[in-house]
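#lab-general

N.A. 3:47 PM
ok so I finally got the sequence cleaned up, no stray characters, all 305 residues accounted for. can someone with queue access submit it? mine expired

B.Y. 3:52 PM
send it over

N.A. 3:53 PM
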Amino acid sequence: MKLCYALRRGVFYPSQQDLFGTMPPKEHRPSYLKLVKSYGFDGVEIPAGSQSEMDAGQTKDFGQELKDAGLPALCVRAGGPIAHHSAGAEARARLERSIKVASALGATVINTTFVTPATNPGGLGSDRRGEVISQGGSRMASEADFEATAKHLAHFGKMAADHGLDISIEVHQGSIADNSKSTLHLLDMVGLDNVGANPDLGNVYWHYEHPEETSEQCIVALAPRSTYWHCKNLRRLHIPELNKSWFIRVPLDDGDIDYRFAISAMVDAGYKGYLAVEGSNLGDQLFHDKRSADYVRGVLKDLGQ
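B.Y. 4:20 PM
back already:
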């Protein structure tokens, strides 16, 4: 199991650029990449099309820059409800672009979500975190929604296979695949070996006021079907009088999710993919993410890996 850096905060002195999941500008990247590499990461996750080099048609140059730094692009991130009546066309175009970008960069996996636009923006459940309902969650999905999503996903799964790529469906709040049961149902309908799960336990934990399932239940169910793995940890603050939970993001060793159990389950299932440290989005993110990487290596060593 190798470590991928799924960076989330790109601020790095002197650059103040803070675009979600995007590295500092090119002129500031050499020292940034050197530091990330020194923390023991094997490569990085990048979004398709948000780096200026890729937008300018220089995808291969960017990929070579990462390889030269010893941090090749391992995963390309897409997202969007591919079967949605209004947002679906854009999401499908993004997923197709991600396949092309991943192939050009030499990545091995596409990670995508199916987060659905809120039906009542600003209303109850629109935040999709810590409330009693969630707009867009699988509880409100019909079997027809699953069938339409699976049909599109099978198309892109075959396209990815032609490029030697896997697709990973991130278990994500506000989407049709928001817990282990709904994700497995979707994967069974698709029926392709290169389309699997990303069992993001943090997304299950902070989806509702009370989690739909325990982290242990989720990881045991999805470990045998996983093709990629986002790891983040959280501390939960529950206010029962308000029927609401809030969450604080912390390094992997310091939250409510037991990652020793989770890593053990993935190892036992024979998982050979990447463990992606989904980085901090506040403060000194590099210090926090190094701490997470060190913790993971310690657990893997204890497990004889």
